[in-house]
Amino acid sequence: MAFKSYVLVCGGTACQSSKSDEIYKNFITELEAAGIKEDVQVVKTGCFGFCEKGPIVKVLPDESFYVEVNPTDAKEIVAEHLVKGRQVKRLLYQGEETKKHAKVEDIAFYQKQFRIVLRNCGVINPEDINEYIARDGYAALEKVLFEMTPDQVINELKISGLRGRGGAGFPTWLKWNFTKQVNDSPKYIVCNADEGDPGAYMDRSTIEGDPHSILEAMIIAGKTIGSNKGYIYIRAEYPLAIHRLDIAIKQAKELGLLGKDILGSGFDFDIELRLGAGAFVCGEETALLASIEGERGMPKPRPPFPAVKGLWQKPTVINNVETWANIPVIILRGGAWFANIGTEKSKGTKVFALTGKIRNSGLVEVPMGTTLREIIYDIGGGIINGKKFKAVQTGGPSGGVITAEYLDTPIDYENLQKLGSIMGSGGMIVMDEDDCMVDIAKFYLGFTVDESCGKCAPCRVGGRQLLNYLDKISKGKATRDDITKMRQIGNAMKRASLCGLGQTAPNPVLSTLTYFEKEYLAHIDDRTCPAGKCKDLITYSILPEKCIGCGLCARRCPVNCITGEKRQPHVIDRSACIKCGECYSVCKFGAVVRK
Amino acid sequence: MAKMTLEELKKLRESKKRELEKREITGKDIEIIVGMATCGIAAGAKQTLSAFLNELEAQNLSNVLVRQTGCMGYCYAEPTVEIRMPGMPDIIYGKVDPETAVKIVRKHILGKVLINDHILDKPAADIMKK
């Protein structure tokens, strides 16, 4: 019996936290109750990327894109749409641009995207290997096992121009080739799924939506460089991704796609999961390998590179999740196809996790060379509440800010570096006029200082000192001299730190100093915070001539420090005020001022 | 399931691909739209819909999209079915029982010949499209 309709329910972490699990279950019960269980297939897919509007339910073949669905809405969708063929209009996505109920291909969010890594996310059920196989899954592996020589595989990667998506952008083929040429055994394959940047969730979503693409790529690498064992290092905070990897590995083993004598080719390969405890430094490859070995996660000086002496001192290929997800497509479509996408030096696409003060936060994949403006305004829908764009942070705590004048820069590894930021793994945090740059720098540096492993002095001591200066600035106690010292410390950390964490930790500070020096100086010279974020530099007061005495601010004040008679101007007791800004945001008459 | 050989994997992929293709929308240029309002269902539209799906599967046609819609207004001639395909005029057929459904797939879609005794109307202009 063929299905008449299909209901795709998003099963990514973001939608699951908004009860998409319950939605899925309700669909099954409602379909059963309506007597059309046999006619409709309900599929739990990976992330659709449009997390801002989740939970998302897509009904096919009508291509209805339902957003912000509640578990109770399942009944209405079943009764109206699936039984009677009438779309539930109130739940359909309404495009901001046309105000018309949009089909998926009309939604601006998806128009500029090009999905290679996320090709199966939101399309297949990640817990069913058959659906992956149906979308040409494991076809690249067939090619590598039976038709291609290892040198041909490496050559295809070389033509493709694929570079590591973990951030540094090292050519993938070179890494594989180094490892292949080393005369030592055993060799290891490692997947770095230790994604830890604040606000980044590209790798998590890729694994949750398409776990088999990672497994297939790792087996391909094993065959190419001559390894029989792979490890996926993933943080324990990603329970859903781990669960889906477990299922994927089990299913692949059952079908003989993992284990001994894969597809009768005589090649053996096995994959094991290793759960990390969530230390940011373990995303650094040498620290990650130490952690797999059961040692404390601390980086080691390179060389020797992992390609020569990696896991247990043996040659190891270590790539990031997104890099792996590209491999099967490159093998299937050919390196030349891939090299056609992107810019001269950066090929293919990049996945970004778009967050912060942006209207459509979510997961987007765009060809390299797309401009920041296209991502933030065309895909992201611009800034929330019509505020003014101030800056965007790429590369998380290792990156830097990019300001409005550089919005038209095409994104690739080199261009971002020129602007003092980095590609990083793909976090993209958008800031508006209400964000204070000193505060932002303090947030990121606070993160890296917490996460520093403490092995080398430049990172351990330098980071702490920088943070102390930032603290001084945000309290209005700094001098101009301090900025000079901060630049010195930052540059020293860049040069002298042992690993990427310390080398990039000062980036948020140095880049905000470059682009927003005036804002720093306002904190230092005028003792004010222009964005009104740094609590020690602001005071709230009520203008008596504007206050009508409605009492709203007094009722909202969490510490009851606002007093006044009804219909008479109120006053704030500054000694008790905690500067939360609640009165400022609730006053309808502009009577509360922040200075 | 037991361990597979290369041949078995290829076979599995082919069969699963066809299953998954039914969910796909891109690349399908022929549309069969079945009126599934109360009047249509009472007249047997459910059986008609199943007949279409089974015949498409039997003929191994993967570029056809089968959709359901509400009442087209011809309650006296239910089940009604609209066919849109390149190279043929858009047609609404009336009184489409499962047998006629099979005929539509074989003659109209594959043979590009109209089934004269079931032609009811051509679709009204869609005011939502400009």
Compile the SSE list and pairings.
The complex is a heterodimer of chains A (595) and B (130).
Chain A: E1 5-10, H1 13-17, H2 20-33, E2 40-45, E3 57-60, E4 64-66, H3 73-84, H4 108-111, H5 129-134, H6 139-147, H7 150-160, H8 172-181, E5 188-193, H9 202-209, H10 211-225, E6 229-235, H11 239-254, E7 270-276, H12 285-292, E8 316-320, H13 321-333, H14 335-339, E9 349-356, E10 362-367, H15 372-379, E11 389-394, E12 400-403, H16 413-418, E13 427-432, H17 437-451, H18 457-474, H19 480-496, H20 500-504, H21 507-515, H22 517-525, E14 540-542, H23 552-556, E15 562-563, E16 571-572, H24 582-586, E17 592-594
Parallel strand pairs in A: 1-2, 5-6, 5-8, 6-7, 9-13
Antiparallel strand pairs in A: 1-3, 3-4, 9-10, 11-12, 11-13, 14-17, 15-16
Chain B: H1 6-21, E1 30-35, H2 38-42, H3 45-58, E2 64-69, E3 81-84, E4 91-93, H4 98-110, E5 119-121
Parallel strand pairs in B: 1-2
Antiparallel strand pairs in B: 1-3, 3-4, 4-5
Compose a concise summary of this entry.
The complex is a heterodimer of chains A (595) and B (130). Chain A is built from 24 helices and 17 strands.
Question: Your description of this structure?
Answer:
The complex is a heterodimer of chains A (595) and B (130). By secondary structure, chain A is α/β, with parallel strands linked by helices. Chain A folds into 5 domains: 5-107, Glutaredoxin (3-Layer(aba) Sandwich), CATH 3.40.30.10; 129-339, NADH-ubiquinone oxidoreductase 51kDa subunit (Rossmann fold); 349-432, Ubiquitin-like (UB roll), CATH 3.10.20.600; 437-525, de novo design (two linked rop proteins), CATH 1.20.1440; 539-594, Alpha-Beta Plaits (2-Layer Sandwich), CATH 3.30.70.20. Helix content of chain A is 39%, strand content 14%. Chain A contains 24 helices and 17 strands. In chain A, strand 6, helix 11 (239-254) and strand 7 form a beta-alpha-beta unit. In chain A, helix 9 runs parallel beside helix 11 and helix 19 (480-496) packs across helix 21 (507-515). Mean pLDDT of chain A is 91; it is low at 97-101. The mean pLDDT of chain B is 82. Chain B is elongated, with a radius of gyration of 17 Å. In chain B, strands 2-1-3-4-5 form a 5-stranded mixed β-sheet, with helices on one face. Chain B has one domain (28-121): Glutaredoxin, CATH 3.40.30.10. The longest helix of chain B has 16 residues, at 6-21. With 130 residues, chain B is α+β, with helices and mostly antiparallel strands. Chains A and B meet through strand 1, helix 5 and helix 6 of A and helix 1, helix 3 and strand 2 of B.
